C-alpha cells in the first residue's frame, strides 16, 4: 500500500531523495512560469522543517543537454539558498549530499543527462539510491514513464508519496466518479493516446466532446471534407466504436484558414459554453484548435466559461496551467493537474507504473 510522506518515521539529518516535478517551461534560459515549483513546495517545506537533508531530482526539457540551473535560481526566490550539483549521480553528487546540513536543499542536474534514466536502468537507479536513505515520489507528471527514477528507485529505498502526488491521485479519482450532469472535453491530437481515456469517459460522463486536431480524425471518418487539416494516420475503422457512442460530441462548425481547420466555429463554442454552464463536474484535457498558432477563440471561451461555472472542474494537459495562470484564471479551477499524458493514463486505468512501484 502506498505510504504518505507523513509516515516517514525519522527525518532529522536524514538524506531524502525527492523525485520532484521541476520540469518547468523555459524562455530565453529563464523560468517562464513558477507554477510547478509552487506545487512542489509543500513537500520540500515539510522535509526542511523536520531537518531532513533534501535532495531534489528531476528532468528538464526534452533533451539530455538541458540544465536545471535556471530552476535552482527561481527556487531560491521561493525558499532561499539552494545548492546545485552539476551531475545527477556519482562521486560529486554523493559529496554534495554529504556536506548538506539539516534543512538544506540540493538540486541534482537533469536526470536525463544519463541515458540510464530513460532506459529504466537498474544500475542508474542504484546510483541514485546511493545518495539517500529515503525516497519520496512527488512527480506525478512522469509517473506514466518506465524510467529509472520512477519504477526502479522505489524498490531500492523506503519509498513514500509526496503531497503533490497525493493531491493528484485524490482529485483525479474524484473526476472518475463525477457528479451529474458531467461534461468532459478532450482536445489535442493522436487518437492512439486518447482511445483508452475516451472509452472510460464515455462510460461515466454524460457528454464527452472531442476537439482540437483529434476531432479532425473523427470528422473525416464521418465523411466530412477536412482539406489540409492536421490528421493522424488512424484508420476510420479504429474510430468507429467511439464514433458511434451516443454520448460523443464533435464540432458542428469550424474556422478554416487556407484550407485547414484551425479552430472551432461560433456554433460549437456556443454549444460548449452551454454544456459547461449546465454541468456539475467538468474535466478538460488539451487545447481546442491550433492554439500555438494563435487560434485561441474556442480554448479561451471554454477556459473563461469553466472558471465562472461553479462546477467541480479538473483541467490538465501540456502547458494548460501556464496559460490559465497568464489569464488570471488558475485559482478559479477546482484542480489543475501538472500531468498531460500521466493524467490521461490515470483517468483511463486508475493507476500508473510509478504509483504501482510505490506499493
From TrEMBL:
Positions of ATP binding: 194, 292, 317-320
Pfam families: PGK
Reactions the enzyme catalyzes: (2R)-3-phosphoglycerate + ATP = (2R)-3-phospho-glyceroyl phosphate + ADP
Keywords assigned: ATP-binding, Kinase, Nucleotide-binding, Transferase
Coiled-coil stretches: none
GO cellular component terms listed in the entry, alphabetical order: cytosol
EC number: 2.7.2.3
GO molecular function, one term: ADP binding
Domain of life according to the entry: Bacteria
One GO-annotated biological process of the protein: gluconeogenesis
Family classification: Belongs to the phosphoglycerate kinase family.
Protein name, entry field: Phosphoglycerate kinase
Organism listed in the record: Candidatus Kaiserbacteria bacterium RIFCSPHIGHO2_02_FULL_56_30
Lineage: Bacteria, Candidatus Kaiseribacteriota
Amino acid at each position: 500500500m502506498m505510504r504518505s510522506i507523513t509516515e516517514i518515521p525519522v527525518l532529522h539529518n536524514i538524506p531524502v531523495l525527492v523525485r520532484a516535478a521541476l520540469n518547468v517551461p523555459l524562455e530565453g534560459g529563464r523560468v517562464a512560469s513558477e507554477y510547478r515549483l509552487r506545487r512542489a513546495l509543500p513537500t520540500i517545506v515539510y522535509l526542511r522543517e523536520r531537518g531532513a537533508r533534501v535532495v531534489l531530482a528531476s528532468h528538464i526539457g526534452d533533451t539530455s543537454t538541458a540544465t536545471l540551473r535556471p530552476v535552482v535560481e527561481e527556487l531560491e526566490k521561493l525558499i532561499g539558498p539552494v545548492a546545485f550539483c552539476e551531475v545527477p549521480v556519482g562521486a560529486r553528487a554523493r559529496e554534495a549530499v554529504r556536506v548538506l546540513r539539516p534543512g538544506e536543499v540540493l538540486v541534482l542536474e537533469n536526470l536525463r543527462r544519463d541515458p540510464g534514466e530513460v532506459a529504466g536502468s537498474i544500475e542508474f537507479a542504484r546510483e541514485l539510491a546511493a545518495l539517500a536513505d529515503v525516497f519520496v515520489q512527488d512527480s506525478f507528471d512522469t509517473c506514466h514513464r518506465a524510467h529509472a527514477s520512477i519504477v526502479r528507485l522505489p524498490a531500492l529505498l523506503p519509498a513514500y508519496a509526496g503531497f503533490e502526488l497525493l493531491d493528484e491521485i485524490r482529485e483525479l479519482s474524484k473526476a472518475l466518479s463525477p457528479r451529474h450532469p458531467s461534461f468532459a472535453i478532450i482536445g489535442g491530437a493522436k487518437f492512439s493516446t486518447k482511445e483508452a481515456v475516451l472509452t472510460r469517459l464515455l462510460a461515466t460522463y454524460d457528454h464527452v466532446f472531442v476537439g482540437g486536431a483529434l476531432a479532425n480524425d473523427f470528422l473525416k471518418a464521418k465523411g466530412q471534407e477536412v482539406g489540409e487539416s492536421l490528421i493522424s494516420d488512424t484508420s476510420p475503422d479504429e474510430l468507429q466504436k467511439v464514433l458511434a457512442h451516443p454520448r460523443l460530441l464533435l464540432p458542428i462548425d469550424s474556422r478554416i484558414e487556407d484550407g485547414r481547420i484551425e479552430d472551432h466555429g461560433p456554433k460549437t463554442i456556443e454549444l460548449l459554453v452551454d454544456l459547461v454552464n449546465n454541468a456539475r463536474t467538468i474535466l478538460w484535457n488539451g487545447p481546442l484548435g491550433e492554439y500555438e498558432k494563435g487560434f485561441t477563440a474556442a480554448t479561451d471561451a471554454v477556459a473563461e466559461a469553466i472558471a465562472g461555472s461553479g462546477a467541480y472542474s479538473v483541467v490538465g494537459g501540456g502547458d494548460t496551467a501556464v496559460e490559465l495562470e497568464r489569464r488570471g484564471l488558475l485559482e478559479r479551477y477546482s484542480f489543475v493537474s501538472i500531468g498531460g499524458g500521466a493524467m490521461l493514463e490515470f483517468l483511463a486505468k486508475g493507476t500508473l507504473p510509478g504509483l504501482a512501484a510505490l506499493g
